[in-house]
């Protein structure tokens, strides 16, 4: 028997997963991870998008967008797993009153509620290899395969449908695997030469027009441009932005 908070979350996940589906929810059964044939991916994605667009979910949407924007090809795998775990616990699960238990996120041990969420490196033919990471849900009742499938799909969809859900401007899987210049594994996807930054000095602030200075993100270590008038001005730019 799952705690009431976890029950609320899995019921919500199932309502998203089985959106607009006339077929009954499958019975509890053991077996490998699979998607039932009666499931409608388009309807499920639409239901998740509608949830994110609700005025009450503005904080979830913005925090997910800001967190995903910090991930790229130069983000260490461990740092990426940690950041994604925190995003999932502190945004989606927090909406259902599930207290983050990050000490159990990366281990096989359950949280106090017999429920845990893990982020691992994707290593199989899952759709989640679009992001390079895979979110796994662990429930006390391992017979509830259908419940786990719904919960895992919803949480993974936030990562590998990031563009479709309005959470990113460029797919996470491209940002994670795209390396600069000659190391780019997909040359056909490189930016045109005209889009490459020029080494002619820092750009100007998009808010006040002042010069900018290069700084490093405190969480990921990735560089970015910051306004020299900070904290009076909070303007920032992508570090690849060329001088204007």
Task: Describe the structure in your own words.
The chain has 244 residues and is an alpha+beta fold. Helices cover 32% and strands 11% of the residues. The chain has helices at 4-17, 41-53, 58-69, 77-92, 145-160, 172-177, and strands spanning 115-121, 133-139, 212-216, 223-227, 236-238. The chain has a three-stranded antiparallel β-sheet with strand order 3-4-5, with no helix packed on it. A hairpin with an 8-residue loop joins strand 4 (223-227) and strand 5 (236-238). It starts with a helix and ends in a 6-residue tail after the last strand.
The domain count comes to: 2
Helix and strand succession?
HHHHEEHHEEE
Biggest sheet descriptor: 3 strands, antiparallel
Put simply, the count of helices is 6
Q: What is the spatial order of strands in the main beta sheet?
A: 3-4-5
Structural class: alpha+beta
Low-confidence stretches: 27-32, 103-108, 193-199
Average per-residue pLDDT, rounded, comes to 76
Key phrases:
three-stranded antiparallel sheet, two-stranded antiparallel sheet, elongated, alpha+beta, 244 residues
Helices and strands in order:
Layout: H1 4-17, H2 41-53, H3 58-69, H4 77-92, E1 115-121, E2 133-139, H5 145-160, H6 172-177, E3 212-216, E4 223-227, E5 236-238
Antiparallel strand pairs: 1-2, 3-4, 4-5
Helix pairs in contact: 1-5, 3-4
Write a concise synopsis of the structure shown.
This protein is of the alpha+beta class. The protein is built from six helices and five strands. It has two domains: 4-176, no CATH class; 192-238.
